[in-house]
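ARCHIVE CARD
Drawer: 12
Card no.: 0347
Subject: one protein chain, sequence and derived structure
Cross-reference: see card 0346
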Amino acid sequence: MIERRRVLTGAGAALLVGVLDACGVPVPATRVAMPTGRLQLPPLRADIDRITAITVCTRPFRPAGPRLDVERLGDQTIVHNYGHGGSGWSLSWGSSAIATDKALATGEREIAVLGCGALGLTSALLLQRAGARVTIYAKT
């Protein structure tokens, strides 16, 4: 049995994926004669034909990347901030700061935010902090 502390300090957490096979079953590490006495993990067998299902990254994704631009529709200004492909939670502050600047540059101070995911809520919060009156619209 591999000592957890030794694996974490010896191999590094980034290499722990090599300890599991494609089904999540632990694969025994092999001890190799190394000057440091550290464990060497077996190579990861990650072939495309071993994939049986994709269960992550199913959020809307735009091959062109996130949309973060301004569009005029009649007398309304629309600031687009979507298409982050599930990365909205990690990009929300930077992306929403850009969207907020674009929205406030129009001179409007009553702003509607469509959607209350990570990007929508972060945008609404930043707009409020900047003095805008914000209404969030979301499908329930």
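Annotation on reverse: The CA atoms of residues 21 and 140 lie 40 Å apart. Residues 70-137 form one domain.
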